[in-house]
Amino acid sequence: MDFDFDPTTLELRERLTTFMETHVYPAERIFEEQLDSSPDSWNPPPIIEDLKEEARRQGLWNLFLPGESGAGLTNLQYAPLCEILGRSPHIAPLATNCAAPDTGNMEVLHMFGTPEQKKEWLDPLLDGSIRSAFAMTEPAVASSDATNVETSIVRDADHYVINGRKWYISGAMDPNARLLIVMGKSDPDADRHRQQSMIIVPRETPGVDIRRGMKVFGYDHRDHGGHAEIVFTDARVPAENMISREGDGFAIAQARLGPGRIHHCMRLIGIAERSLELMVTRASGREAFGKPLADQGVVRDWIAESRVRIEQIRLLTLKAAWLMDTVGNKGAHTEIQAIKIAAPATVEWILDKAVQIHGAGGVSQDFPVAAWFAQVRTLRLADGPDEVHKNALARNEIRKVRSHAGA
Amino acid sequence: MDFDFDPTTLELRERLTTFMETHVYPAERIFEEQLDSSPDSWNPPPIIEDLKEEARRQGLWNLFLPGESGAGLTNLQYAPLCEILGRSPHIAPLATNCAAPDTGNMEVLHMFGTPEQKKEWLDPLLDGSIRSAFAMTEPAVASSDATNVETSIVRDADHYVINGRKWYISGAMDPNARLLIVMGKSDPDADRHRQQSMIIVPRETPGVDIRRGMKVFGYDHRDHGGHAEIVFTDARVPAENMISREGDGFAIAQARLGPGRIHHCMRLIGIAERSLELMVTRASGREAFGKPLADQGVVRDWIAESRVRIEQIRLLTLKAAWLMDTVGNKGAHTEIQAIKIAAPATVEWILDKAVQIHGAGGVSQDFPVAAWFAQVRTLRLADGPDEVHKNALARNEIRKVRSHAGA
Amino acid sequence: MDFDFDPTTLELRERLTTFMETHVYPAERIFEEQLDSSPDSWNPPPIIEDLKEEARRQGLWNLFLPGESGAGLTNLQYAPLCEILGRSPHIAPLATNCAAPDTGNMEVLHMFGTPEQKKEWLDPLLDGSIRSAFAMTEPAVASSDATNVETSIVRDADHYVINGRKWYISGAMDPNARLLIVMGKSDPDADRHRQQSMIIVPRETPGVDIRRGMKVFGYDHRDHGGHAEIVFTDARVPAENMISREGDGFAIAQARLGPGRIHHCMRLIGIAERSLELMVTRASGREAFGKPLADQGVVRDWIAESRVRIEQIRLLTLKAAWLMDTVGNKGAHTEIQAIKIAAPATVEWILDKAVQIHGAGGVSQDFPVAAWFAQVRTLRLADGPDEVHKNALARNEIRKVRSHAGA
Amino acid sequence: MDFDFDPTTLELRERLTTFMETHVYPAERIFEEQLDSSPDSWNPPPIIEDLKEEARRQGLWNLFLPGESGAGLTNLQYAPLCEILGRSPHIAPLATNCAAPDTGNMEVLHMFGTPEQKKEWLDPLLDGSIRSAFAMTEPAVASSDATNVETSIVRDADHYVINGRKWYISGAMDPNARLLIVMGKSDPDADRHRQQSMIIVPRETPGVDIRRGMKVFGYDHRDHGGHAEIVFTDARVPAENMISREGDGFAIAQARLGPGRIHHCMRLIGIAERSLELMVTRASGREAFGKPLADQGVVRDWIAESRVRIEQIRLLTLKAAWLMDTVGNKGAHTEIQAIKIAAPATVEWILDKAVQIHGAGGVSQDFPVAAWFAQVRTLRLADGPDEVHKNALARNEIRKVRSHAGA
Questions:
Q1: Do B138 and B29 share a structural domain?
Q2: Residue of A nearest to B219 (CA)
Q3: Does residue D129 contact residue D102 with C-beta atoms inside 8 Å?
Q4: Three-class SS of residue B238?
Q5: Residue A148: per-residue pLDDT
Q6: Is residue D21 packed enough to be buried (19+ CB in 10 Å), middle (13-18) or exposed (0-12)?
Q7: Closest by Cβ to A361, choosing from B139, B288, B386
Q8: C283 in contact with A at a CB cutoff of 8 Å?
Q9: Is C318 within the bounds of a domain?
Q10: Where residue B184 sits, what CATH number does that domain have?
Q11: ipTM for this model
Q12: Contacts of C275 in chain B (CB under 8 A)
């Protein structure tokens, strides 16, 4: 057992930290100003393109992607880098082409795409010249169970025809999100986990109606493509847009999930670290009743608890990443579930305190903590509410004890 | 001891409930549509004027105001009505002319205004033809201590000249908010609680720059006048705009505070009751893993806890109201502090569960729970963060025990 | 609505407070010394008899019992007195003949006893010359559901024969507990709520084996009769010992329950008030890192939260008492459930803080807070764990919303 | 970074697990019976000696001690073994000569003892033939700050004379605890951290009055030597009993502390794992309202949360152990503080749920969970209350941010 990062990770952490300090943090104010100055645009602020160029130049690009197409890092190596990106969560992931949902989509295309699909869609995604969306969640059913999707994908000669309603399709409001990877039911009569397929639907396809941006506590998130409600009405795409084979949808979703959750959690830890810094900075600079907030007992309690909790979720996330690398996503199942449960709740708690310490400023647009709170809050719901994951984790735990007792 | 409402209250509760069911709830969808259709307006949606007319016609008007100018109710009588208004918090208070900050401002003018001030400002406020704002909070200092205000109010012959910066001035973005009651320092050398004054500043006064709407978790709250940042630069108003006398500002603020907090808390309880209903309705109608959410243990736990907690904060708020009526705001001090501490935290907890049960819909614009969460969250900060009130309450508690021990 | 106590209550509160200050608090040390000096005795320390004499003399006796046999108070009148008794929970209830389980047993005999039963058992109980126990909980089944009891009560000519195992039968280790009221199954084939009976079993009955004292976190509670495990093996009692009629057991249990829970909760509030005083006193007298604990932010937070929470559970308990008086136990069902859920958890929280502030002393025998913690902890289990009550309360809440929606 | 145990650890874990299953768990019932049958004895039950012999024979002995005198393991190697011992916390540590406070005392003598001291005291301790106590905590001062001790150690020719009062001196009630290591003040005028000394006081020394066993929530813990109150009145020991030199007391205490806390935390994790098993087992075997507790949502929530939290504190503890091995106790300071804060609170939470699931049995002597709860609860106080550690940790955190900002 060894808690040191390997040399590759150490070197990349240093370079990435420099990039953050030299380019990303200074860009934050500009990013906000550009956003404010074009209130009706769903494109990311133009400064993002400058940062992408710089990141690409420095080789801080596609860090998330294993293999030759990407930076070739393991999950354990990427995790601490992803944390650093999370410190400026609206900018750094975009700037380094490491932003969801593109990361997951690139992984899917990388693992399951045909050479033609890769050429048409993966290459420009890797290149950062287009974006993408992943259309799974539906308003009418509990999204926690992928087998619930009701959108239909029906073969019609050499095409597939798609009908259904999706919402909270992140990134899809960005006009540059050229493709949607749509999860739907292709065979309602197949086995429960073989009914679903995933298919590539180009944005311009007739019958694809991107209706409106869903909000998150009042935020439209147009800085990273928003969250679209999309209605598919007889949307027709060539049969070769199918990813892998009919019926593989559930398996692909599972494969996409593990790394996705790890990334979310690592970014959360970055948010938490930055929030703790903001908390301490504000508490140090603000007086109330004759002494700095940072000298007041309750504030110190929050600061200490934040540190104690951050250390715990970071280690748990790193261990999950290590398990994914060593025994695979399946072997890491419990740990992945555990961080999915622990990290959002923990970081939400920290952000609540960060808001409180900032006073009215804490809920405002002048500090990032309210926006981060809202974002983190959604992760207790996204990809299944906590309660579903706890129930599943408990079932396993019970099974383990019983089988041991029976042995 | 008797927990029954008196006949006046019972009768008004019934009439108000009918008004809610007949006019307010059905107006909610229209209200949202009108809001959406005029995205750049800071005026409340036009349906509000229809509702005001109806409420005035039914005598459900100015219920908050004791004495002949208003409905003449005690705090204890108004409290349960205010709770009912809180069930549709963005509409019902406006519709019945019982919305903050106008209520507090009307109370101030009613208690401390000159006949001229009353004629010019109170009458149209009572009438519902104009609105108002209360400018106290400043970005640069801890707003929890009213003696901290830095805005200056300086006598210059028969005028006062105002300089300073305020923010989160609720309602002030509404162009119909014709007057601002501004709290500032008129004599920095006076005793600590005699340095402040309150003065009426008409919106149009040169030197009043209403800069921007502050946000609350992404919401601009333009449906009820937003929260303005206002800069006063040599804003000059006639000396007769002073409310009461120079140096009375702190005392007026205190007088305004007690009822204001009670109203906030009662509205919160209305929000909580409605949220619990939404929670139960959603849980009853939504299945996951083969049974309705409402049959799942964790959800039931939340529902039960919500009920148990609501009952407690309601009783505490009613008792505080009763104390204000019987022994005055000062005698009710501890209880007012206690509900200020307990109610927002409790209702926030309930709303968190309501969000969770609604899934992605819970954070969206399609259900009110995320917006209510954000609103309630601010009340852990507004008018002093919880921690300040807890500290003060504890100090009292310690003093009580010590003096008893010393006796 | 009126939060004032009536004159009878006010007068009794004053007299009872004087009795506490003059007799009970000074007796606490003696009580402990007497306990320590007879480590193997299950009798209460002798000072209790002195206190009983004094209480009887002052008319502070059987305050819990409505009607002519007792003090004739309503639940609402008794509640604040019971709170005062709770301030010295191991002494004051015994001293005033207001201790569980005797109170509930006297109520049962008072309501359902035959003249002979009253003469033989109720009179000496009212008199304070004997004690009693209530044998319901069984180790083998979930005690939260009274219909689960497995102990059998079988008619055999003019006797009943009892077989079964009970545990946590409070008070039964005291040799002066002359009678046990035993709940058992008399007719397993009857309707679910008509299978149970309650019967009086004199302590000396052959076949009654009082096996051992069950502990509560290491405490044997021999100061108030412990908690016995009792095995009944063909214990035979005359048929006239049946309380009311065969099959009435469940109904009697329900009738006994409401007041019992109120009493527990009021006592808890007394414990909480006293604990808060101890907390403040200790925090005022103890320095750490250069200033009194009472000046430290986290400690103040605990003190304030304690006050805020106590006020809430007190009001809820009083309202439940008022409802019992005005609309009956059934009408007060939700409120009784609510305090059963809220009060133990709240007071446990307060006691945890009281322990913490006392340092090592907090877990020791030198301060009462650890013992109170243990006692309060059991009330989250006794008479059904919280979770059962929450589940039932939620079911009601769901039914209410649905029926309203359907109306 | 690598989360695998090394081969030595893996092999020892296997052997230790076998020892637990073959000898320790089966001994638990006998241990309890022997305890019950000698209610006045402060000696551990005789079965402990049998187990010690077996453990010694198997080489599962002094695992905690680095270097040649012990098993020679690093902290990181010992941690997971210590966790296993914690699964039977009243037996396994004693059985393997790895019980506090002997472990810490052996470390002190090992590091700082003279050859004579080692021969007289360390050898029989290593051998398991005697036990020891560590006398630091005093009733009169906050024990969280070692510089507070008031007990005096005064040189008188070739002796030292000790006066003072200590309490909660764990293990000292065991007559076989032949020596006390006493912390006291030898020079009140020296620098703050040079005033203290540690000295060996043989149990038989005249003037050593072992007064009484302090309790922990009603438990006397006589199975592992209780917690003594000890009064020293002119207790006189030879000057060569001084450990290291006069004034080294504080430094020795610090050196003793790091490993001690790690051991406590690892044992806690063992307790938590066993409690979770007990919880699951009970929940699987007990029905309520028609289905096993293990199928009820709230119970599952507890089980899942328990697992998620255990994983986090384990990783944090292992990391702290690794830091101690690699950068020393000082470098591991924050992490040691963090587990000291996190582990007791977490495991207390788990035990609360374990108690609840066991119903009345949960607070009884028939299941271990109440006793463990009490024991764990003390660790939020022992060696400084949580609040002190949080305050210190926060101060560091604030310093870090400030120095970074200033850089």
A1: no
A2: A218
A3: no
A4: strand
A5: 85
A6: exposed
A7: B139
A8: no
A9: yes
A10: 2.40.110.10
A11: 0.96
A12: none
Distance CA C91, CA C28 (A): 8
- The amino acid sitting at C3 is F
- Of B245, B260, B283, the domain-final residue: B245
Distance from CA of C301 to the nearest CA of A (A): 8
Q: What are phi and psi of C259, to 5 degrees?
A: -55, -40
- Domain assignment present for residue B279? The answer is yes
Straight-line distance from the first to the last Cα atom of chain A, in angstroms, rounded to the nearest whole number: 30
- pLDDT of B234-268, one tens digit each? 999 999 999 999 999 999 998 888 788 889 999 99
How many Cβ atoms are within 10 Å of D57's Cβ, its own excluded? 9
B178, B189 Cβ separation under 8 angstroms: no
Q: What is the pTM of this model?
A: 0.97
For residue A390, the distance in angstroms to the closest alpha carbon of chain D comes to: 5
What one-character DSSP code corresponds to residue B366? S
Residue C2 located in a structural domain: no
- Tell whether B28 and B153 lie within a shared domain: no
Residue C407 has pLDDT above 60, yes or no: no
The number of domains in chain D is 3
Tell me whether residue D30 is in a domain.
yes
User: B289 and A145: CB-CB below 8 Å?
Assistant: yes
Pseudo-torsion of CA D335, D337, D338, D340, nearest 10°? Answer: 120
Kindly state whether residues D402 and D285 are assigned to the same domain: yes
B388 touches chain C (CB under 8 A): no
A215 and A355 belong to one structural domain: no
- Closest to D79 measured CA to CA, from D386, D324, D308: D324
Q: Residue A116: give its domain's CATH number.
A: 1.10.540.10
pLDDT tens-digit profile of D183-235?
Answer: 999 999 999 999 999 999 999 999 999 999 999 999 999 999 999 999 999 99
Residue range of the domain that includes C14: 7-127
Q: Give the chains touching A; criterion: ≥3 Cβ pairs < 8 Å.
A: B, C, D
Residues 321-340 of B with CB under 8 A from C: 322-323, 334-335, 338
Nearest CA in chain B to A169: B360
Asked if the C-beta of C36 comes within 8 angstroms of chain D's C-beta atoms, the answer is no
Alpha helices in B286-296 (DSSP H): none
List chain D residues with CB under 8 Å of C348.
Answer: none
Tens of pLDDT along chain B (407 residues) come to 999 999 999 999 999 999 999 999 999 999 999 999 998 899 999 999 999 999 999 999 999 999 888 999 999 999 999 999 999 999 999 999 999 999 999 999 999 999 999 999 999 999 999 999 999 999 988 766 778 899 999 999 999 999 999 999 999 999 999 999 999 999 999 999 999 999 999 999 999 999 999 999 999 999 999 999 999 999 999 999 999 999 999 999 988 887 888 899 999 999 999 999 999 999 998 887 778 999 999 999 999 999 999 999 999 999 999 999 999 988 999 999 999 999 999 999 999 999 999 999 999 999 999 999 999 999 999 888 999 999 999 999 999 988 877 54
In this structure, the answer to whether residues C206 and C254 fall within a common structural domain is no
Domain co-membership, B267 together with B375: yes
B297 contacts C387? CB cut-off 8 A? yes
Q: Among the listed ranges A257-261, A398-402, D115-119, D325-329, which one has the minimum average pLDDT value?
A: A257-261
Assess B288–A contact: CB distance below 8 Å, yes or no: yes
Same domain, yes or no, for D238 and D139? yes
Choosing among D217, D229, D289, which should be mutated to test the C contact, i.e. which has the most C CBs within 10 A?
Answer: D217
**Spatial contact of B386 and A359, defined as CB atoms under 8 Å apart:** no
- Measured CA to CA, the distance from residue D340 to residue D320 in angstroms comes to 10
Handedness of CA B279, B281, B287, B293 (dihedral sign): positive
Same-domain check for residues D234 and D291: no
Among residues A183, A211, A245, which one ends one of the domains?
A245
Please report residues of C whose CB lies closer than 8 A to that of A300.
Answer: 297
Q: Which of A289, A295, A296, A302 to mutate to test the interface with C (most CBs of C within 10 A)?
A: A296
Q: What is the CATH number of the domain that holds A254?
A: 1.20.140.10
C-alpha closest to that of C43 among C177, C133, C134? C177
Q: What is the mean pLDDT of residues D101-130?
A: 97
